């Protein structure tokens, strides 16, 4: 207890901060300030040498308002605290910093000053309503792990991580991109080994943004990728794991399969929960699945269309199952057959008319003949009728017969 009093006293004497509730809760274990009297410092060291070794000549372990600090764990948490800016007085010992669930909208240049946070290695800024990350805001010499998930990033400066190369190794951008152009700013992360881009409604990935020579894990799951024809994985020579689950992939073409084959370290490709279209175009994918051991859980991949193939395992497909004249073609086929029928009928009609035209003289003659024949015939009838109808003529005829 005496040692503790001494330490709090030292912090107070340094005139840096009033005592905060978090300090009273004992979250900060050290506080030998530059203004502390030598005697007190010696007392502190004498009583708590093992604990204080880590503190060295550092500034007092002040903790910003609204944050919780633990110096032994080198951790500071400012969680769900209505912070609108990064606290300027973060303790310099911090290695692991959580500023999550706050209404931060902007990270200006120098939001995390490199000289005051030399050891900051893990930074969690998820769920903060962040829209812009400006040049130089994250230029931290020790930053290895950054979580920007659950923000609404519209712009991320290509110089956000400083002018030189950043040591960043792990970056999470789950559901973080409001504007997909942000991806283009990731090209300057030579040490990035893990990139999580899931849940971003991505329909395609710009070729240039995936030139990350050290990348080993890429998570593109839960997006809206409809195809990978335009996506180039060539710049990812170290890639080991690729998660493409929960997208809208219908087929993978030869060009993509060839890229997968050519990546030597790529051993874990996840393709589950996509909308595979099982027509003849999927043959190359099926052949690759059968021969390759790069795909995790390939037995569980199933067709989503056409209806006849719904739920059928991709691995169980063989060539004879695959139709490209899918039923949706039927109406158009019918339509073409109607058109064909119409053309044939029109041709027959035209030929008929032509024949009539060419034979017009013969037909005319024939018609005349028929008419004449009819007339003769009718005249004959007429004559006979007249004779039969006239009693005098009848008599005459009978007389003449006589
Ligand atoms: C959050 O901060 C804003 C201004 O910075 C203030 O108007 C608001 O009342 C605060 N909300 C809470 C819950 O503290
Ligand atoms: C960052 O914080 C969020 C919310 O607390 C958590 O879900 C997430 O796992 C953290 N990220 C990392 C990389 O630890
Ligand atoms: C998928 O992404 C959407 C949109 O970002 C998100 O709301 C949903 O929670 C994500 N689902 C999973 C399983 O992560
Ligand atoms: C791939 O992503 C899905 C959905 O986000 C997740 O459930 C699964 O665990 C991931 N698999 C791997 C190997 O990372
Ligand atoms: C793929 O690239 C071609 C031209 O290179 C373009 O016409 C097409 O729209 C692209 N597709 C997607 C999904 O971006
Ligand atoms: C895809 O490649 C295989 C050989 O690797 C070849 O047999 C097949 O015809 C190719 N498919 C297309 C559509 O070019
Ligand atoms: C296709 O697979 C079925 C079983 O799924 C099998 O009965 C059939 O003989 C196979 N056809 C060919 C041509 O391999
Ligand atoms: C493929 O088409 C033929 C007729 O063209 C049909 O009999 C067969 O059922 C179809 N198969 C599938 C799997 O759709």
CATH topology of the largest domain: Leucine-rich repeat, LRR (right-handed beta-alpha superhelix)
User: Roughly how much helix do the residues carry, as a percent range?
Assistant: 25-40%
The CATH class name of the largest domain reads Alpha Beta
Total strand count, please? 16
Overall geometry:
elongated
* Overall radius of gyration: 45 Å
Taken in chain order, the helices and strands follow as HHHHEEEEEEEEEEEEHEEHEEHHH
Spans of at least 5 consecutive residues with low confidence: 1-59
**Quick one: biggest sheet?**
11 strands, mixed
Ligand identities:
2-acetamido-2-deoxy-beta-D-glucopyranose
Write the CATH homologous superfamily of the largest domain.
Answer: Ribonuclease Inhibitor
Distance between the termini: 172 Å
Strands side by side in the biggest sheet: 1-2-3-5-7-9-10-11-12-13-15
- What count of domains describes the coordinates? 3
The assigned CATH architecture of the largest domain is Alpha-Beta Horseshoe
Mean pLDDT: 82
Per DSSP, the total helix count is 9
Helical/strand content category: alpha/beta
